[in-house]
Amino acid sequence: MVINVPLASLLAFGLCYAGMAALSLAMEKHHVQVWADSPRPLQQKSLRAAGWALILLALVPSITGWNATVGVVAWAGMLSLGAIVFVLLLSYQPRIAATLGLIAGILSVAGLALQLL
């Protein structure tokens, strides 16, 4: 199955942004910055696992949108872009950055599932 390139880019970016948001919120410093309390150990482990899963899942639209060699390079670019956008938003609007991470993750996973069915 092949996903068109603009949709693949959007899905990969959304998954990378959500993954970076989850990994960032697993860190005590950023969790306190957003929610004003420290994360519990189970929350940290869950956020780390979700973050890595979303980042790895972002490989799927990248590879199906392009071929494997270009897809991995595009994935690395989307990973960088997702991290930069999240860090900039986290600096100025931490709650909005975290909320957008949740929304991006849900919409991207749903969009990817619809494309692959």
Short description:
With 117 residues, this protein is mostly helical. 86% of the residues lie in helices and 0% in strands. It contains 6 helices and no strands.
Describe the structure.
By secondary structure, the chain is mainly α. The chain is built from six helices and no strands.
Which residues form runs of ≥5 with pLDDT under 50? none
Oligomeric nature of the chains: single chain
Q: C-alpha Rg, in Å?
A: 14 Å
Overall SS class = mainly alpha
Q: Characterize the main sheet.
A: none
Mean pLDDT: 93
Percent in strands: under 5%
The backbone outline, from C-alpha atoms, is elongated
Based on DSSP secondary structure assignment, what is the total number of beta strands? 0
Itemize the secondary structure elements and their pairings.
Blueprint: H1 5-25, H2 28-35, H3 41-57, H4 59-65, H5 68-92, H6 94-116
Q: What key attributes describe this structure?
A:
mainly alpha, 0% strand, 6 helices, 117 residues
